[in-house]
Amino acid sequence: MSDLPASVEFHEEGPREGFQMEPRTYPLGDRAALIDALAASGLKQIQVASFVSPRAVPQMADTADLFAAIHKRPGTRYTALWLNDNGFERARACDQVDLDGKVMLYTSEAFAQSNNNCGVREMRDRQLGWIDRYLALGIPFEQAYVMTAFGCNLGGPVPVTAITDLLRWLRDVCAERKIPLPAIYLADTMGWGNPEEIKRRIGAVRELLPEAPIGLHLHDTRGLGGANVYAALQMGVRLFDSSIAGLGGCPFAGHKYGGAAGNICTEDMAFLCAELGIETGLDLDALIEAARLAERIIGRPLTGRVMHSGLPPRP
């Protein structure tokens, strides 16, 4: 039966994932202006950029300067991505970063090797060090991402047991440390999800960990992003990662036509929620203007729909 939530929260990832995927580096002032526009729409969390190797990802070489250029808005968290100790320490050294403790768990051996040069078990065990580090530094352990939770272009179908086995391990880790479970984010990294699998896998997680909040990180690779969001809403999910104007993607997705498409589009999904009577706390007009700003900065048409069609006229 449908169990639509009363409200949902979108965590914006476009400034990091979108600009990181572009072949060129865009002016810092333009990116800072986009982040300020996104915050003005009422978003509670924006992932600004990543602290990664400037040689590997030159588009993120000025991350500390970008954080310094934004005008932080009360009520909005400005987060970052890091992948190793060096990136984490750089994030800690940047006063403007709102640190959020998160770990990445992998279901696919092939994707783990492609992304991290190690297997699923080794990657899982590495996360113990991150959890303990967050606790020692007083950083709340907030999120656990299960990557390729619906399938993998490199490794094929992912059984539900690959997810639940990881989450049993995480449950035991948290119990040993006497800490609450973080929010569990199922990541459809490569766009394999469909509405029925969304429901099935959310149901499996909820049955195993009924006390844990569930979130989704969805890509619209094969055009089912909106349908998958609707299925998740029917299951009562209220946490979603999204990307303004549909920016972004995954360069390691292993698709012959390129990486995964961008995340679900923030303004389109906010519009869906508005049509369903679900509160988002977002100013949809301001969000659409932010999407149009993103398109002007990028300099080509982006995939968002509402930004091009406009909102329907109301009596």
Give an overview of the whole structure.
The protein is of the alpha/beta class. The chain is 43% helix and 17% strand. The chain is built from 12 helices and 10 strands. Strands 3-2-1-8-7-6-5-4 form an 8-stranded parallel sheet. Helix 8 (195-208) links the parallel strand 6 (183-188) and strand 7. Helix 2 crosses helix 3. The longest helix has 18 residues, at 120-137. The two termini are 32 Å apart. Residues 250-260 have low confidence and may be disordered.
Question: What is the element layout, followed by pairings?
Answer:
Elements: E1 9-12, H1 14-21, H2 28-40, E2 45-51, H3 63-69, E3 77-82, H4 85-92, E4 101-106, H5 109-116, H6 120-137, E5 141-147, H7 160-177, E6 183-188, H8 195-208, E7 214-218, H9 225-234, E8 239-242, E9 250-255, E10 258-260, H10 266-276, H11 284-298, H12 306-309
Parallel strand pairs: 1-2, 1-8, 2-3, 4-5, 5-6, 6-7, 7-8
Antiparallel strand pairs: 9-10
Helix pairs in contact: 2-3, 2-11, 7-8, 8-9, 10-11
